[in-house]
From TrEMBL:
Signal peptide: none annotated. Keywords: Membrane, Transmembrane, Transmembrane helix. The chain crosses the membrane at residues 14-36. This is HEAT repeat protein. InterPro entries: ARM-like (IPR011989), ARM-type_fold (IPR016024). The keyword Transmembrane applies. It comes from Salinibacterium amurskyense.
Amino acid sequence: MIGTIEALPSIPGLMMALLLTSATVCALIGVTVVLTRVARTIAHAREHKQREKVRPLLLDIFDGNANFTLPRAELRALIRLAAESATQVRGEDRDALTSWLTAQQFHRECLRRMKSPFALTRARALDRFAPIASLAPGAIERMLSDRDPRVRSLAAQVAGRSGMKSLVPALLHSAEAPRSIPARIVLMAVLRAAPSTIADFGGTPVDGNDRVRAMALDLAGQLNLVDARRAIEAGLDSPSEFVRLASIRSIQRLGSPLSLPALQKMSTYSAYEHSHAQVAIYELQVG
């Protein structure tokens, strides 16, 4: 009892010590945050200054006069600037930038960072790699099944922006893969890749997965691929309503009277499907 009474006066002192410790920790955290922000501001300002200094050299790269020597920091700034600019230009200017980036081994650094355990690092490397993605289509295809959904979606967008027609089958399958990519992103990526023949779709127009097959046939119509007509007509006999409706839509888009017989003999299994088929028949008949 006496020991308990003697301990009571020490409680306010303990509380004061805890408060002082908490205040000290909070102050240290605040100072750390401020110092971090200041350091980032200084770094961004230095990077901006370097980028503006080397920006005129982009014109030399466009003209094929890239025989210059730069300090390491300025060279890295120019590489980052060239990579960003390559996504905004087309034709010979883009070819000049990608050739120069390749000569600087930029792709090797990106490929290395795309294997990072951190999703943000992989995403940044993938985005920077976009202008020269055609150098390593296998790497982009692997990223379509990345463990992070945002990285997977970015990989699909990069494949589309880069016009990687060889990845069209992989893109379509990624919409139904265990590590899936949203169908709307896949569809937009294929449209941007702009395949010019049904051959670019590989086996997806007859795929065993009805949703993959439906997307392939629907896209063939949106891209107005005339050589896809027979594959699209074959979809009218599919047991899947998804595939049959996709085929009807694509036949309407192609507008070929040669598809009339296939439409007229198809079996419909709902009033909704029947009405769509009849509309398509009428449009083909009146031209």
